[in-house]
């Protein structure tokens, strides 16, 4: 890696603009470890001018990069995957320090998935496909002819990638890798809570041979940083992961500039548990809400709809499951639930639990702060006897909190699941697989897990309703980060 790279975290991280590591105009701010509340390092605060400079550098690099053979682009992504995998332990230690993730999550779900995503897009896929010939009769456009056609994927241009705090490795990798594979250049604006990992990713890309200006990273806490990354006239597309409220504001700006959008927004995943379900499987799956990122994940099955015949057992088993989980230091090998990202977010989650009490929900597990020591810890919490009108049922809490709502029959279960502003991923548990698939097709969600919370990493990912716009992952990401061009000729 270059000798002037921006890894001097103790002295203050530099921005990565046009292939150079540059000092931020706005100085630095402290990145805090959510588990120890100590300073991890000093993140840069870019100015609006520096963000515009990054977009301009990306635009200058776009022409040459888009004309680079796909095999060469793929080779750079492959080398990046190797570099990230080779530094998995130190990268995971930094991710853990920034996010509070457990060791297993930091290594496997954060850095490990990032390496896998770079490796996935190091495979060259066909970027064109033939269209069936069309026979045109003689007419105003000339003599009779056979018209051939080819559909070609072309890069969009400069893509602004605005990433989420819950996964500073897998999330940006899932944007950067397919965008570069398709010949786009990128401006990455990392989440302000844990940006240092994204600069390490930029170092790996630089070391892998990515040309100057193809990848730029400009971060900061100020709203103006993200606004500039969206507004820049050099930006052709915005890929955003985060809250629906912020996504709506970004969409308004993109609409004015006719910029392409890929939005992965909030979720309030419904887990529909029927009377004939394998309850051990359902409870274990729903329980991942508590462990993965301490509930800070939009795909979590946080809204449990349990049929009357199993409702009491679901509540009882979920409460017991939550009570067995060790909450504490994420570096301890037996810790399952680490901290949430910040003191402010802990207060937000706790306020929702208190709101649930006031709305009439019964706290059957958790509900109290687990420790007076350091760390922004929230106990895994289960709220029972909830109704569909409650705010804790309707709004995304983004913490280790699960709400349980009873239902009577299949029709009501489907209606309750769909009675949401969100539609990212829902879940169905039933011993009758035919019914589970029938119900899955009736759920208004971008994805449905049948008797599992597992993911197929080639399946399209994205949401209905206020959960987002567009699809990515696997080959779908290559479509998302490309425009389709038709080439027609007369045979």
UniProtKB/TrEMBL annotation:
Domain spans labelled Aldehyde dehydrogenase: 21-487
InterPro entries the record matches: Ald_DH/histidinol_DH, Ald_DH_C, Ald_DH_N, Aldehyde_DH_dom
Annotated keywords: Oxidoreductase
Database matches in SUPFAM superfamilies: ALDH-like (SSF53720)
Pfam families: Aldedh
Lipid biosynthesis recorded as keyword: no
Database matches in Gene3D superfamilies: Aldehyde Dehydrogenase, Chain A, domain 1 (3.40.605.10), Aldehyde Dehydrogenase, Chain A, domain 2 (3.40.309.10)
Official protein name in the record: Aldehyde dehydrogenase family protein
Organism (species): Streptomyces hokutonensis
């Amino acid at each position: 890696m270059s000798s002037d790279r921006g890894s001097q975290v103790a002295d203050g991280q530099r921005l990565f603009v046009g292939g150079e590591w540059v000092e931020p105009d706005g100085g630095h701010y402290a990145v805090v470890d959510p588990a120890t509340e100590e300073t991890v390092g000093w993140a840069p605060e870019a100015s609006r001018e520096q963000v515009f400079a990054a977009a301009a550098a990306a635009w200058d690099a776009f022409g040459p990069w888009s004309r680079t053979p796909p095999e060469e682009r793929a080779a750079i992504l492959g080398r990046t995957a190797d570099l990230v995998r080779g530094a998995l332990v130190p990268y995971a230690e930094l991710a853990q320090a920034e996010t509070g993730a457990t060791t297993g999550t930091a290594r496997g779900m954060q850095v490990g998935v990032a390496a896998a995503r770079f490796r996935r897009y190091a495979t060259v896929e066909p970027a064109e496909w033939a269209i069936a010939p069309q026979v045109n009769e003689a007419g105003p456009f000339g003599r009779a002819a056979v018209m051939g056609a080819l559909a070609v994927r072309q890069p969009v241009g400069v893509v602004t990638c605005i990433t989420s705090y819950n996964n500073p490795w897998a999330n940006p990798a899932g944007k950067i890798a397919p965008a570069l594979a398709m010949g786009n250049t990128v401006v990455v604006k990392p989440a302000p809570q844990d940006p240092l990992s994204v600069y390490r990713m930029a170092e790996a890309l630089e070391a892998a041979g990515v040309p100057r200006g193809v990848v730029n990273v400009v971060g900061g806490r100020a709203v103006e940083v993200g606004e500039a990354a969206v507004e820049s006239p050099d930006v052709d597309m915005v890929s955003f992961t985060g809250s629906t409220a912020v996504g709506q504001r970004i969409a308004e700006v993109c609409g004015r500039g006719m910029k392409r959008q890929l939005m992965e927004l909030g979720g309030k995943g419904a887990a529909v548990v029927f009377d004939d379900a394998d309850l051990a499987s359902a409870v274990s799956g729903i329980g991942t809400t508590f462990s993965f990122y301490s509930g800070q994940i939009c795909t979590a099955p946080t809204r449990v709809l349990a049929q009357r015949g199993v409702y009491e057992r679901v509540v009882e088993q979920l409460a017991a499951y939550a009570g067995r989980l060790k909450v504490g230091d994420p570096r301890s090998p037996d810790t399952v639930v680490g901290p949430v990202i910040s003191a402010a977010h802990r207060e937000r989650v706790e306020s929702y639990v208190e709101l649930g009490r006031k709305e009439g929900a019964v706290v059957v597990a958790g509900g109290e702060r687990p420790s007076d020591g350091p760390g922004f810890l929230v106990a895994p919490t289960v709220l029972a006897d909830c109704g569909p009108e409650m705010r804790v049922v309707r709004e995304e809490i983004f913490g280790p909190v699960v709400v349980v709502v009873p239902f009577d029959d299949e029709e009501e279960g489907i209606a309750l699941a769909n009675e949401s502003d969100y539609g990212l991923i829902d879940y169905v548990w039933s011993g009758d697989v035919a019914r589970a698939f029938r119900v899955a097709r009736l759920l208004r969600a971008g994805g449905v897990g049948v008797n599992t919370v597992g993911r197929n990493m080639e399946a399209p990912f994205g949401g209905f309703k206020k959960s987002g716009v567009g699809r990515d992952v696997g080959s779908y990401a290559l479509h998302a980060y490309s425009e389709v061009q038709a080439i027609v000729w007369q045979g």
